[in-house]
Amino acid sequence: MSTVMGHELIEEYLDYLSVQRGRTSNTLLSYEYDLLRFMGFLKKRKGPLTGFDKNDIVAFMTELKEQGYSVSTISRMLSSIRGLCRWLVLEGLREDDPTENLQNPRGWFRLPRAISVEDMRKLLEAIKGSRFSGRDLVMVELMYACGLRVSELVNLKVDDINFEIGFLRVYGKGGKERVIPISEQTLKRIRDYMTDLRKSLLKNRESPYLFVSSRGTALTRQRFWQTLRGYARSAGLKISPHVIRHSFATHLLEGGADLRAVQKMLGHSDISTTQIYTRITSDRLRKVYEKYHPRA
Q1: Catalytic residue positions?
Q2: What CA–CA distances, in Å, run from 168 to 25, 56, 133, 160?
Q3: Structural domain span for residue 48
Q4: pLDDT (tens digit, 9 = 90+) per residue, 69-115?
Q5: What is the pTM of this model?
């Protein structure tokens, strides 16, 4: 694979678009502008200029957004890069197309919402004293402490918890297994729930599932969502299970956690999915700076 993508290569691609695809001169000028802009970005990253990957493209799109470019302009630039990648594969200059499974930028800039640590405390306080607080506190705490999806949470089995070394085994999307550490405080809550409320809910029945309903059956994701919404309303908050998972990732990164570690704990197959959370923390830092720094 060639390691050089300079003006000559872009010109060759533009000639292909003109001769083979019949593109107009105005369209070619737009392509040229977009690709030269992308080439300049890649040079700053000091990587091989035809060896860029999906993460480079996402980083480029993110930079454009931060510089104030509209989503429609960014979408156009992605379209230009997508066309170039297909041509590079066609010409044998690349073996893969990094844009193949890349979604439209409109979806990238809907930042996941996260709540503050204080709001998380309010939610947990709202659960205390309720009829099923022993179970529901554990569920919300596990979701926040481990970044679980709702489906992962309700499908947890007792055997998925290793009390000795403090780890949780989770089966995520596509049946992918991952292991997440659990704090001693959360483990204690799980033990208390299992020896008290869970036993009374089961009424001598057996269930492999950790979280059970008043009928002794596995709690459904719909039921948990309804329960959480009720607690959130009591606390004066608007919270969904997704918000709790997003808060897990955001608070870890704000505390200085490594991006790769957060990726593993969330079960993201592609780190570019996790990188969106770094934009939330950057936005928050900027707001703090603008509010408190005298030179802002």
Answers
A1: 149, 173, 242, 245, 268, 277
A2: 58, 33, 21, 6
A3: 7-107
A4: 877 888 899 999 999 999 989 888 888 899 987 877 765 555 567 88
A5: 0.59
